[in-house]
Design goal:
Blueprint lengths: L22 H13 L6 H12 L4 E4 L6 H10 L1 E2 L2 E5 L6 H5 E6 L4 E6 L6 E5 L6 H4 L3 H6 L1 E4 L2 E4 L5 E6 L12 H6 L2 E3 L6 H12 L3 H4 L4 E2 H12 L5 H13 L6 E3 L3 H17 L7 H12 L4 E2 L1 H5 L4 H11 L6
Parallel strand pairs: 1-9, 1-10, 2-11, 3-6, 6-9
Antiparallel strand pairs: 4-5, 7-8, 12-13
């Protein structure tokens, strides 16, 4: 396992997984490991697990200091797989992410040197502090799980997940993520400030040591790949498919939106709903799985009209209204 920050030694390998444990049990193990460093954020941890099992990518957006990077690093340390961290800065180049072809004097030929994106878990810290050109270097990797450099295509590892953090765009020194980039993130979450009791517990845990270093990996990359295959096999009825399509399609005609959700959003919504159902120990998806994930899956993809922004509406509130207005299938 590659150290998350490049300096901390990797934890020891996890014991062999117990056979027969399903997605729900293994997800609980991973979630418990992550919770060792993240106080009072079970919903955020669950959404991160849903995104992982849905073969998706996670965008964590919030103000500085609330644990965005800690959540990303905790999830990475709970998994015994390759991890690379990219600190996005204004001078970061696309080749730093994807890799570069270098001329080898000995072989008299060009050889490819992989960039930081070649890992199972890629942590993109403060992704919106790099230029849009550099941010776009992740587009092919996130959608097609491959990188093309100088006409040659290189496949990425499986599983592959990008966990990116960003500060709100009104913060100093940030660039807005391009629409195509946001659309490739399966879910977006905000950490929020902790409750008083959770903040007190955080002082106890973090004041006397480093909880992140205490996290031991509880699953390997092959374990996660096997869990993803189980999630893929979950049953989704035609009525639930129709419900997801109706919900997403309604965003394309909403008067408060100048850009609705894409067909990719529908696919991500169903994949996330499958993962949520699996974590609840069900082998089928129900409408409540879709409803519960509508805001984290759809809101970050939507663009509000100028009038809606002036009225201080948010994309999350628009999605909540669409959920309330879309008829739930009877069966």
């Amino acid at each position: 396992m590659t150290a998350v920050d490049g300096s901390t030694p990797a934890p020891s390998s996890p014991p062999p997984p117990e056979r027969g444990l399903g997605v729900s049990a293994r997800g609980a193990e991973i979630g418990e490991a992550v919770a060792g460093a993240i106080e009072g954020k079970p919903d955020a941890i669950r959404l991160a697990l849903v995104t992982l099992l849905a073969e998706g990518h996670l965008l964590i957006e919030d103000v500085p200091g609330v644990g965005k990077t800690m959540l990303a690093k905790s999830l990475a340390r709970a998994l015994d797989c390759t991890v690379r961290r990219i600190q996005f800065t204004p001078d970061l180049l696309p080749s730093d992410i994807t890799g570069v072809s270098v001329f080898n004097q000995e072989t008299r030929d060009f050889e490819f040197r992989p960039g930081a994106v070649f890992a199972n878990i890629v942590i993109g810290d403060e992704i919106n502090r790099a230029s849009p050109k550099t941010q776009s270097a992740l587009l092919e990797a996130m959608e097609e799980h491959q990188v093309t450099v100088d006409g040659s295509t290189y496949p990425l590892a499986t599983p592959f997940m990008v966990v990116a953090t960003q500060n709100p765009i009104e913060m100093e020194g940030t660039y807005p993520l391009p629409e195509a980039q946001r659309d490739r993130f399966t879910t977006r979450l905000s950490m929020g400030y902790p409750e008083r009791a959770d903040e007190m517990a955080m002082l106890e845990a973090h004041g006397g040591g480093r909880p992140l270093e205490m996290i031991k990996p509880v699953a390997t990359g092959s374990d996660i790949a096997a869990l993803i295959e189980q999630v893929r096999a979950l049953h989704v009825s035609e009525s639930v498919h129709r419900y997801a399509v109706d919900l997403v399609a309604s965003s394309r005609h909403h008067p408060d939106l100048r850009l609705g959700a894409s067909p990719r959003a529908t696919l991500h919504l169903i994949r996330a709903a499958k993962a949520s159902a699996a974590l609840d120990d069900r082998d089928y998806v129900i409408p409540d799985d879709v409803r519960g994930l509508a805001v984290p899956v759809l809101a970050h993809r939507l663009l509000l009209t100028a009038e809606a922004q002036i009225a201080r509406r948010t994309s999350a509130s628009v999605v909540e209204a669409l959920v309330d207005q879309t008829a739930i299938p009877a069966s």
